[in-house]
Specification:
Layout lengths: L10 H9 L5 H19 L2 E4 L1 H16 L10 E5 L26 H8 L3 E6 L11 E2 L3 E2 L15 H8 L5 E6 L5 H7 L2 E4 L26 E6 L2 H11 L26 E4 L10 H16 L3 E3 L8 H16 L5 H12 L8 H9 L3 H21 L5 E4 L19 E4 L2 E4 L5 H7 L5 E8 L5 E7 L6 H14 L11
Parallel strand pairs: 2-3, 2-6, 9-10, 9-11
Antiparallel strand pairs: 1-3, 4-5, 6-8, 7-8, 7-14, 11-15, 12-13, 14-15
Length: 489
């Protein structure tokens, strides 16, 4: 079965076509299912298929459309990251011991997209406990990049980015604590949005076998992925809003974007930093974007004293991130890390040392670190009085070959011929994660070898619509997603 004219359309285009009766939800779902059956043996993006229920949901959507019902996602086929609870489907987070864990209720965001009329095709692959920028585990195997099967699609929402790039529906649900929305979008040439912290409730995006209760996962967010910038807003609006089960939740009203035209935006552009250098391909892409933006009238600055100290905030992010993640470490692993941290010389301020110190952080020290985060947020508030957004790298290089060596601290990433520590790449996602800022990842073109590249647009606290709007305007002016050649059929 050949590609249909709808295989790579945006959700907004598909919604308009459904309303105009140019296509049916059943036809769209059959096309997506056909593409998965035709291509996914090579990509391995959709690890849990739910085609029978998807077909039934598509038939129900067509009936609703025939009755004149209007819902924002009605009849649109989508996927969800494996880490989301979907009633009746396994949720494993790649943990072999949890391969038979099957929740009985949907995650809140899954329930919301269903209420909005979406057709869920299945769940997309992840790394073990969502802890890598590569998406592989012992239950479901390895997900490959649709632009080069020998390379990572990113992680931990790598199955979602690969599914989008391959035409398995126009939308997907992902999550992000160390770039897990933005990194796979970057590596697969699609779009993703890390929302302002706590804008989207995470109930049901829960490691098994924990119950789906409202709780605070420090730094972590869930958010939308798509093949166009405007589609990110469509999905974000469907899932945002307080959890009715959380008495402490409050409604975070999103103001409109600061501007409606490119020429009105004030942007600080960063292409590299000694903390985590970027390679010549990434820098070149950012330079081309900078030139295009300047021609379009955007006020582009290359440095500002208002920008928080990137090295200091990155070290703080490493400590707070690892303090949170280490809470689930096995006791012997945690104890060994504490002993190793105690042996570190004070002069060692490497990011690896800060990660080790984070594992051993006492509650008192965490409170002090959290105070540093509060001051950082205040610095960003001042920054955004002068600028509307920061455009900066997502990762230092395009997608790299699969590397499943077990100890990530011993892995190395090559940047312009020089080795760098693999987990140090956390620095670029961390620029938005630590202060809880919204960040939209967009594609900006391709490396000479055909691999996608892109940037992230970091915006002010609670002003998600500002980076989203800037992403839309850049896409409209300079282009966006381009399907992978080997799966564009």
């Amino acid at each position: 079965m050949a590609k249909s004219q709808w295989s790579f359309k945006t959700a907004i285009e598909i919604s308009a076509a459904l309303a105009a009766k140019q296509v049916s939800a059943v036809e769209l779902t059959q096309d997506a299912i056909g593409r998965i059956e035709r291509h996914d043996a090579k990509i391995n993006a959709v690890c849990v298929r739910d085609f029978d229920r998807a077909s039934a949901a598509a038939r129900a959507a067509d009936a609703a459309l025939a009755r004149g019902e209007q819902k924002p996602l009605l009849g649109i086929p989508i996927t969800a990251k494996e880490s989301y609870n979907v009633a009746g489907l396994p949720t494993t987070w790649g943990i072999p011991e949890q391969k038979n864990f099957t929740p009985t209720e949907d995650a809140l965001s899954v329930a919301r997209v269903k209420d909005a009329g979406a057709v869920i095709l299945g769940k997309t692959n992840v790394p073990l406990v969502l802890g890598d920028w590569q998406s592989y585990n012992d239950i479901y195997g390895t997900t490959n990049n649709p632009y080069d099967l020998g390379r990572t699609p990113g992680g931990s929402s790598g199955g979602s980015s690969a599914a989008l790039a391959a035409g398995y529906g126009p939308l997907s649900l992902g999550s992000d604590i160390g770039g897990s929305l933005r990194v796979p979008a970057f590596h697969c040439g699609v779009y993703a949005h890390k929302p302002t912290y706590a804008l989207v409730p995470s109930r049901g995006h829960t490691p098994p076998p924990l119950p789906p209760l409202p709780f605070n996962r420090d730094l972590s967010v869930i958010g939308p992925m798509a093949r166009s910038a405007a589609d990110l807003t469509l999905l974000l609006d469907a899932i945002a809003g307080p959890d009715p089960l959380d008495a402490s939740a409050y409604r975070l009203e999103l103001p409109p974007p600061r501007h409606a035209a490119l020429k009105d935006f004030r942007v600080l552009l960063i292409d590299t930093d000694p903390v985590m250098p970027t390679d010549s391909v990434v820098r070149g892409s950012i330079e081309r974007l900078a030139a295009n933006l300047a021609k379009a009238g955007v006020k582009v600055e290359r440095q500002s004293k208002l920008l928080p100290d990137f090295a200091a905030s990155t070290r703080l992010y490493m400590r707070i991130l690892m303090s949170f993640l280490a809470a689930s470490f096995a006791p012997d692993v945690h104890e060994g890390a504490k002993q190793a941290a105690a042996a570190l010389p004070e002069s060692d301020t490497s990011l690896a040392a800060e990660r080790l110190r984070g594992i051993a952080l006492s509650h008192r020290d965490w409170v002090m670190a959290d105070g540093g985060r509060t001051r950082l947020r205040a610095q960003w508030r001042e920054f955004f009085k002068t600028f509307d957004a920061v455009i900066c790298p997502v990762m230092p290089t395009p997608a790299y070959p699969h590397d499943h060596s077990p100890e990530q601290e011993k892995r190395r990433i090559m940047i312009d011929g020089k080795e760098h520590v693999y987990p140090d790449q956390l620095a670029w996602p961390g620029i938005a994660t630590l202060p809880g800022l919204p960040s939209t990842a967009i594609p900006t073109g391709f490396a000479p070898d055909g691999l996608p590249i892109g940037v992230q647009i970091v915006g002010p606290w609670l002003e998600d619509r500002t980076p989203l709007k800037l992403a839309e305007l850049i896409e409209r002016e300079f282009g966006g997603f381009v399907p992978p050649k080997m799966f564009n059929d």
